[in-house]
Amino acid sequence: MPISLVKGQKVSLEKSGTSLKQVCVGLNWGAIETKKFFGGRKVVAVDLDASCAVFSGKNELKDIVYFGNLTSRDGAIRHSGDDRTGDAGGDDGLDNEIITVDFSRVDAGIDKVVFVLNSYKGQDFATVPFARIRIYEGSPERVDNVLATFDIAADPKYAGHVSMVMGRFYRHQGAWKFAAIGDSTTDRKLEDTIRTVARLYL
């Protein structure tokens, strides 16, 4: 069964003694809908950005996968592309942005992949409908098994923030694991969030 991640919780990416080869980190959210003064509804686009920073064993930044760079240098990490609006008319149940990690292709010198979330237009996380993260086996087209979910919209601690560190994939004794972080940051831009990751979360 899926679990709701909390700060500091660690999830093994092994199943029945076999390491998972491919995991997706999916982000789902909605556009903001408000009532107009004279009736009707106004839809305001929301641009959340899922990104990840890739580090070597010496905590050296090696790569960043985000809306402006959709594939890592080794081809192991792929971003589905930038969604600049969010779901209009309610939750369609699909992830708006997905980052796929093929662990079998990650360069041997890489041992940390850290996922972050930024609100590109500076829209407060608390105002974004049904924003949530899920981690699952499979591909962007096929969900085989949901490993974990992480709720953003329902947690009041994210109110007033526009960036957060989701969690960290890391190698441990030859196997990949995931550590939930779930910390909001005071950063306004992706590059600042990556600096915060390098300073505090490796």
Description:
This protein is mainly beta and 202 residues long. 5% of the residues lie in helices and 47% in strands. It is built from one helix and 15 strands. β14 and β15 form a beta hairpin. The radius of gyration is 17 Å and the shape is globular.
User: Looking across the biggest beta sheet, what order are the strands in?
Assistant: 1-15-14-11-7-8
Rg: 17 Å
Helix content estimate: under 10%
Strand-residue proportion? over 45%
Q: How far apart are the first and last residues' alpha carbons, in Å?
A: 29 Å
Give average pLDDT, whole number: 88
What structural class is derived from the secondary structure elements?
mainly beta
Number of strands: 15
Shape: globular
**Mind describing the biggest β-sheet?**
6 strands, antiparallel
The total of helices stands at 1
Query: Quaternary arrangement of the chains shown?
Result: single chain
> Which H/E pattern describes the elements?
EEEEEEEEEEEEEEEH
* Model regions low in confidence, pLDDT < 50 over at least 5 residues: none
